[in-house]
Amino acid sequence: MDIIKKVHELSQYLDNDAIASALKIPEETVVDILEGKANVEQIQTQENDSAPVIHVNSVKTAYRQKIISVMRAKGGVGCSVISLGLSYHLSKEIKVLLIDLNLTNGGGDLSFYLNLPDYPHLGVYKDNLLNCVIPVELNFDVLQAPNMTDNEKQKVSQIINHARQDYDAIVIDLPNRDDDLVMTALECSNTLVAVTSDTALEIVRLATILSQYQQKNIIVTANACNLSGDAKEYFTNYETVKIEHDNSLSKILDRCDLPGEKTIFMRGIKQVGDLLFERKQKGILKSIFGGS
Ligand SMILES: Nc1ncnc2c1ncn2[C@@H]1O[C@H](COP(=O)(O)OP(=O)(O)OP(=O)(O)O)[C@@H](O)[C@H]1O
Ligand SMILES: [Mg+2]
């Protein structure tokens, strides 16, 4: 299907929101296609009976739409709380889905932090994503991890592509693994928030992983630590943010509350959010209009 042709054809009979819902793309994308401002890429899915996935990047939606993998090279460094804080922060302005891909832990940290019911979860996804997500706050839904053995790789890329139709930002809490599932999520993301503490092996491993994703927007987040001079050397190509240790965080999470924007933790998260949007805007305008 040539989506640009289809949108133009339908525009003779339908208004923009009807076209958007018929083709399952955001209304802003319809407007951008009609104004000739969209890049369209069609991705053939591996399942024979499923329709190809259409990726549309346009000025408005691409600026707003982020697929953010929050990843690390060591357990327990704060990946889940940063995914949670970032999703909550972004949801004040845009619609966010937080996906927990910690599939083998008997339910992820996020289900625990948010005190979610056991059901629904990612394991029940077939083709209706909205039946599987749990609303947490206005504009903030979570797709929680079930306890499942493995390999949901194909399902994960379908879920992410499906979520692009309904959310402005998708934040993915990744486990500390380097298997197919994690690689699929990283490949589907346009932005990586790499969380690190300051231990030598972890820094080297993280820098090695990041070096494979140079084309993505990358932000290195030093969580509750100061990066040593040696560590900083590994990350000179990337923006870095320091999130301070926040003594109030564990009490807030114990109450299953979300941290307020004035907390030390959320002030660090806000820096990550500011950086994500500033950099992406420049990159997208350049890629669409070919500016320098
Ligand atoms: N900046 C911070 N200030 C205070 N406490 C923090 C901070 N970052 C993380 N923590 C605490 O560290 C602990 C681990 O955080 P979290 O669950 O996010 O780690 P993780 O990387 O997701 O772990 P896992 O490898 O188990 O998935 C939590 O108790 C969390 O409250
Ligand atoms: Mg976690």
CATH class of the largest domain: Alpha Beta
> What small molecules does this complex bind?
adenosine-5'-triphosphate, magnesium ion
Structural class: alpha/beta
Measured as a percent range, the helix fraction is 40-55%
Number of domains: 2
Q: How far apart are the first and last residues' alpha carbons, in Å?
A: 32 Å
CATH superfamily annotation of the largest domain: P-loop containing nucleotide triphosphate hydrolases
Largest sheet: 8 strands, mixed
- What's the CATH topology label of the largest domain? Rossmann fold
Major sheet: arrangement of strands: 5-6-4-7-3-8-9-10
Q: Helical region count?
A: 12
Rg (C-alpha, Å): 19 Å
Q: Sketch the topology as an H/E string, one letter per element.
A: HHHEEHEHEHEEHEHEHEHEHH
* Whole-number mean pLDDT: 86
Taken as a percent bin, the fraction of beta residues is: 15-25%
